[in-house]
Amino acid sequence: MNRIKSFFQRSGQPSSREAAKQRLQLVLVHDRNQIEPGMLELIKDEIIAVISKHLDVDRNSVQVNFTESERESKLVADIPLSSKRQTRK
Amino acid sequence: MPARVITVTSGKGGVGKTTTTANVGVALALLGKRVACMDADIGLRNLDVVLGLENRILYDVVDVIEGRCRLRQALIKDKRLSELYLLPASQKRDKSAVKPDDLIQLCNELRPEFDFVLIDSAAGIEEGFKTAVAPADEVIIVTNPEVSAVRDADRVVGLIEAAEKGPARLIVNRLKPGLVQRGDMLDTSDVLDILAIDLIGIVPEDESVLISTNRGNPAALEEKSEAGKSFRNIARRLTGEDVPFESFKNQGGLFGRLSRMLRRDGRAA
């Protein structure tokens, strides 16, 4: 059924219903936590600064985001390390 | 048992608070409950016209609070249902004329006389909203399946929790089942996922609400109105009955359109 539905949907775009839900979920994370614009970038930069003191962080791949389930918010940071081979001495 | 005081609110305006208050009030009275519907939207009186009682008003809620009349004199008895009463808002004054403590005291006076006191809140999250919520034992949030209404409802959910009046329960109003099936409207399940509160009712978009409101006869009085049926189900759930939620599955298709057409003709005849 879903496949039939998506067949009729314009050019593989998600339905406007899906779009509405996703946009709401994102905007509500910000509303609920009173997050100012730019705050996530700031948090990300500061996390990188702290971790980099100890580990070699792949700065361009770091992701910091909010997730939400049942009105509980989480801050999730994905911090890949640089893929340099560590050679033991 | 003293009345349960239930405040109907929404954050966003125009989602159907007053229509819901009137129709759920009517539906509770149809079940034989003693119901007082209070219009707490001071300065923007509307519950009276939706209930069709606008010609009977002598005194309003501000007159009671300021001692110009007794509560009993301001209560307007419904012309159809002997157990339904309206306490109208003042049209000339503004929100500042009624304080939270005034409404708490007013409700304490109403509690022994009724089974339900339904309070129609002002839109927004400021003074009028806070006043309407102050006396509430329970809160119902009305929303529409649209981004702006759901966002505002979420704000209200948080404020109700903070005021320790929660958990509020939700009515999804003006759902268009055909649009949902086409993938172009949030479904009730989506709204519930987002707001994470309990549902008390789903009311489909239905022309009969507008038409019956034009005449001052709430749709809940109409046997065949889809929305009226949903409002009656909400009343039954409020009294503790376990009524399954409507699914409106056929409404969008040809069958739904046909049956709606037939129903319209039936009413016009």
Describe this structure in words.
The complex is a heterodimer of chains A (89) and B (269). With 89 residues, chain A is of the alpha+beta class. In chain A, 44% of the residues lie in helices and 16% in strands. Chain A has helices spanning 2-8, 16-33, 39-52, and strands at residues 63-69, 72-78. In chain A, a hairpin with a 2-residue loop joins strand 1 (63-69) and strand 2. The longest helix of chain A has 18 residues, at 16-33. By secondary structure, chain B is α/β, with parallel strands linked by helices. Chain B has a single domain (4-268), classed as Rossmann fold (3-Layer(aba) Sandwich), CATH 3.40.50. Chain B is 42% helix and 16% strand. Chain B has twelve helices and eight strands. Chain B has an eight-stranded mixed β-sheet, sandwiched between helices. The chains are: A alpha+beta (89), B alpha/beta (269).
Give a brief rundown of this model.
The complex is a heterodimer of chains A (89) and B (269). With 89 residues, chain A is α+β, with helices and mostly antiparallel strands.
